[in-house]
Write a structure and sequence with these properties.
- By secondary structure, the protein is α+β, with helices and mostly antiparallel strands.
- The chain is built from 3 helices and 14 strands.
- It has helices at 2-21, 39-62, 228-231; strands at residues 73-74, 78-84, 90-96, 108-117, 122-132, 135-146, 151-163, 167-181, 193-205, 209-215, 221-224, 237-243, 249-256, 264-266.
- Strands 1, 2, 3, 4, 5, 6, 7, 8, 9, 10, 11, 12, 13 and 14 form a 14-stranded antiparallel sheet that branches.
């Protein structure tokens, strides 16, 4: 009997020590710049960042076409190939190598093919097996101009973000984008400031369903290229109005213009 009690005592000590040695639970994914967002907000900022990243790359190349000749590199991770399309448009192909880390610390693979009509400024981006940090990005991205070329328009159809075995988001989008600063200095990326003054998105989110999103000129999304390293291609201010099919509304507030803002879900 005494031996049994002794063994039970030792077992209790072991269990007590094991409990004290158990590490704290690992914080769930999103304990960063998305930690103050609900599930719908986290999906939307993934889409927003992907769109802004492609817009950034496209503008970076087109604002300095002569700076990216055939055989050069873009973002220190993509080989540049130039030529003409059958229609006579400029064709710029960026071939990314997953073994190379880009200057923004992202790892990309696949290709971006830019079809640029210099006569009217229209741009189409074709994505060939394009991936960013393990997320596949797909869709049709078409840029144009309106209002006497004062407003850049972006239409996205069949957009997809997909992390294999984890999650996916399908989306369509329309955006009106206006230069606020930096357009006259194409050699200086860091002074670029743009506003998304009118936009809407339609998202289909795995395990969540549908979501519609609106942006208006009263609270435009402000994009500062000098902040992209810290904001991870997210706006630094502006508000989106989000609606689910059940009629529930929320907003995402991107902040007050500082690079270190966190987007926040508001109700």
């Amino acid at each position: 009997m005494q031996r049994t009690i002794f063994y039970l005592f030792i077992l209790c000590l072991l269990l007590s020590c094991r409990k004290r040695d158990t590490p704290h639970p690992i914080p769930p994914e999103g304990n960063d710049k998305t930690s103050k967002l609900d599930a719908y907000g986290k999906a939307l900022v993934k889409v927003e960042a992907a769109i802004n990243e492609l817009d950034y790359i496209a503008l970076k190349v087109l604002s300095n076409l002569n700076g990216y000749p055939n055989g050069s590199q873009c973002l220190a991770c993509a080989d540049v190939t130039t030529g003409l399309t059958p229609e006579g448009h400029r064709k710029i192909t960026l071939s990314f190598h997953p073994s190379k880390t880009c200057t923004d610390k992202y790892i990309r693979q696949g290709q971006l093919v830019l079809d640029y009509n210099e006569a009217n400024g229209a741009l189409m981006i074709q994505l060939n097996n394009y991936m960013v940090n393990g997320v596949k990005v797909a869709g049709n991205y078409n840029f144009g101009y309106s209002n006497a070329r004062k407003v850049r328009n972006l239409v996205i159809t069949n957009g997809t973000l997909k992390k294999e075995g984890s999650w996916f988001i399908n989306f369509d989008a329309y955006r009106d984008i206006v230069w606020k600063a930096g357009e006259q200095t194409p050699d200086d990326d860091l002074d670029n400031v743009l506003e998304v003054q009118d936009a809407y998105y339609h998202l289909s989110i795995q395990d969540l369903g549908l979501m519609s999103v609106d942006v208006n000129a009263m609270n435009p999304l402000v994009l500062k290229w000098s902040c992209y390293g810290e904001s991870q291609y997210l706006p630094v201010s502006g508000i989106t109005l989000n609606k689910t099919p059940e009629g529930k509304f929320s907003r995402i507030n991107y902040g007050d213009g500082h690079c270190n803002n966190y987007p926040i879900s508001e109700y």
